[in-house]
Predict the structure.
Amino acid sequence: MAHDLPGVPAPDPGQVHAQLTQPALGSHRLIWLATGADGGPVGIAGLRVFTSPGQEHLSELELHVDPAHRRLGIGSLLLAEVVAACHAENRRSLIAAAAADSPGEAFSERRGFSRALTLDHLLLRLDELPDADQPLTSDTAPPGYRLAGWTGTVPDEFADAFASAKTAMNDMPVGDMDYGSVAWDADRVRAMAKVIADRGDTLLTLAAVHDDGTMAGYTEVLLPQGSGPRAQQYDTAVVPAHRGHGLGVWVKTAMVRRLRAEHPDVVEIETDNAEDNVHMLAVNHRLGYRSYRRTLEFQLDLPSA
């Protein structure tokens, strides 16, 4: 990853260990390791097999080959094992991501994957924003809404409302990917927070709550391994009935304030948006995010065995 994505923080051993040992939400994982003649690792493939209702057809590939051992058939060998496992798991769709203009893009196209979605990655440098005591883009609450926030697991008083708001993510642009949809309930949002905590990450959430008690929107930011210079934007969503009031900009602005106050070691936030998600891209550019790289999402349609 350090070779293919210069400038992107590579995962440290603690993050890799957590990925290998902590189950992801609504899925299980299979791993393959390719070794050279001396027994040293030269490539790895991981397959996430989704198990939640609405996604039982789906699997996701992560494949890496050491740069010094590429174009020797190692990637093809690993992919063949993955595809066989997909058939055994009764999957019809295999999705994978590759950096634009990278060896992974060329490999995917040669192996029959079709391009399904383009993601624009953006960075917000907090030290380039106005000083902490200066107003940001949207510090004023829209009429009829108040802010609620928490760290980790959602408080019981908001659990059902948060689950309903999470379902709003099902209409996010996914291009031509056969992604399916996920039904959220209070148990699932609690399980999601536990998975994140168990791998050592910290999840911060801010939500817009309407005067009638419904949750109108929210934004989530992940601090890998608790904290560090770069935070990861997770979901931001506004429930359809509450769109058009500037809630997305408001909650994301409030999150910047929160990070500055509670986590001064965070200096930048990374997010990604589908290139056709015009609204959220406009929100992020308004906040000061700037594009810095692109990722391509590929899909391989698997015929029935």
Remarks:
- The chain is about 25% helix and 30% strand.
- The first helix runs from residue 13 to 21.
- The two ends are 33 Å apart (CA to CA).
- The chain has a mean pLDDT of 91.
